[in-house]
Amino acid sequence: MNLHQIVYYSRNTVGGDTRSMLQGLRDIVSVSQKNNSRDGITGALIFDKTWFLQVLEGDVTAITRTYDRIAKDARHGEVTLMKKEPISERRFADWSMGGTMRSPEMQEIFLNHGIAGAIDPTKLDAGTVVALAQDLKAFEAGRKASVA
Ligand SMILES: Cc1cc2nc3c(=O)[nH]c(=O)nc-3n(C[C@H](O)[C@H](O)[C@H](O)COP(=O)(O)O)c2cc1C
C-alpha cells in the first residue's frame, strides 16, 4: 500500500433548516463510512453551516478515486485541495470517517488551533486541520465514554 493523505476544504451547500441540514450531513457520513471501510480509507470530516474540512488517508489510488468522486458532489462547492502527500502512518486508523459538527462546547478546541470565530479555511494550513481533527476525535471519544 502506498499510504497517502489528502486534506481539502469546501463550501457546504447542503442547506435547509438546521434539522434537514443535520440529516443531510448524517447521510453523507453514513455513506462515507460504508464506502471507506470497503476501500481501506480512514479520516475525519469537520463541518459547520458554511464549510467542510476533510482528511482522507489510505492507498493513493483509493483516496484519489474517492476525492475525485467527492469533488463532483453537488452538496458542496469550491472544493480546494490543501495537501496530498505520502504519510508513514494513519492518524485516524480506527475511523472509516468520523463526522464532527462544530458546536459551542468545542469552542476551546477550535481556539487552541487559532480559530476564534467563523472558520476561514483560506487561512488554515493542512497540518492545523489534521491536528484539529485529532483533538475533536479525542473529544468525541471522551463524550461517548461519558454517556455510556
Ligand atoms: C463533504 C463530503 C464528504 C464526503 N466524503 C466521502 C467519503 O469520505 N467517502 C465516500 O465514499 N463518499 C464521500 N462523500 C459522498 C460522495 O460524494 C458520493 O456521494 C458517494 O461516495 C457515492 O457513494 P455511492 O456510489 O455508494 O452512492 C462525501 C460527500 C461530501 C459532500
TrEMBL record:
One Pfam family named in its UniProt record: BLUF
Coiled coil feature spans: none
Alphabetized SUPFAM superfamilies for the sequence: Acylphosphatase/BLUF domain-like
InterPro entries in the record: Acylphosphatase-like_dom_sf (IPR036046), BLUF_domain (IPR007024)
Highest taxon in the source lineage: Bacteria
Cross-referenced Gene3D superfamilies: 3.30.70.100
BLUF domain ranges (all copies): 3-98
GO MF annotations in UniProt: blue light photoreceptor activity; FAD binding
Protein name, per record: BLUF domain-containing protein
Species whose genome carries this gene: Caenispirillum salinarum AK4
